[in-house]
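Annex B. Sample input.
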Amino acid sequence: MTTTYHTAIPSTPAQPANAAIVNSPLSELDSELVAQDGRITVLEADMPVPSGVASEYFDGSGGFSVPSGTGSTNGHVIQDEGVDQTQRVKLNFTGAGVTVVDTPSATEVQIAVSDHGALTGLLDADHVAGSIAFTATDKLVGRSTSGAGAGEEIPLTAAGRALIAAASVADQRTLLEIKDTAYKLVPTIASNNITLTLTHMDGTTPSTGRPLWFRIADDWRAVVGALSVTVNAAVNTFNAGSAELATKEIDYFPYVSWRAASSEVVLGFSRIPFASLYSDFSGTATNETYAAFSTAPASTDDVANIGRFAATLSAGGGYTWTVPTFTNSSLKNQPEYDTRLLTYTPIWASSGTAVSLGNSSIAGTYRISMRTVVVRVEFTAGNTATFGTGIYTWTVPFMPVSNSYGAARILDSGTAHHTLTSDVLSAGNVLRGYPNNAANVGATSPMTWTASDELRAQINLEI
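Annex B, continued. Sample output.
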């Protein structure tokens, strides 16, 4: 500000007589104006200066203020790893994975990030692996301590690294020595022939990538490809089409064998459940202890029972195969060593003049349990039967490996009961009866046979 606010009366030319009177008040006015100018300068120095923050206001106490909770600048301070960033008027969130919820009544604005990949430039390595300072190699991030809490380093062992690095589930199973042993037996009929196929439980074929494992003797052996065995029609295989067994449902026992000559697993089936070597089977296809294999093992090759299934062979020259609608009883996908209670038709014969059943009734049952066959025979003579002459015999479904003995009774209808012993000699398949103090059971022993007379016998055979 200036300090002179008027033009004084000049001294030359000569001033009027009243010049002093006029100039004196003006000088006083100048002095007062100078004083006022000083006070204005002080006031200007004390005035608060606004910062330019949009949210600040003059608070009435001589200064400007920012609303409480918004920081010293426009809104919150934004930092990156603790370092303040340049403040902007706006903070804009973009991307499909970002949701901003601004509820008027709330005390905060909620920002939800559901897909970090939608944020340009934000990579896993930026905020996960790259931002973690591990203390050493071979560490995983997780939590091994019980309960909720902060993340921890978990050691990653060599075994763990190998498991993670495995290219497939099959490779992982190999590393862990987990063997797929769940299998399914699939008997089918085509052109009257019977085929038994081995698959995984889900029906898929074994392969090198997914083998099927079996314990044969003391070793694990792998099936690495399709495996099946077929028995053709037109042959009385297993003696299953004999007069005693034709059209009767028979239980068969599947086997796997390690065929050492070709270093492969082969598949077969038989009527006997107890074999541990291929030599335990008969080599004759029509024998009841025969085993049919996809490729025949050597006599010393190990075999292992893996289940049971039912099938029927017809009689006569056709010898055609059929299978039932399988149930949990007629098809087993695990080792089985017993049959169900099965039926057969005993053949009644005599050593002299031939007998004839006529309207007689005859029935037999048998059950195999490992090496033992329990056989029952029931015969009731009819009034049109021919009783012939000589010693009577009734056939059994298996030949025993040693002499076998049992018990029997005979009813002389309307007269008496007779108790007796019975036997089946080794390498034979006929049952004979021996009454007390009498000749072998026959047309006239222990009485003369007539209608309604009965025989009931039971015997255990070792096969």
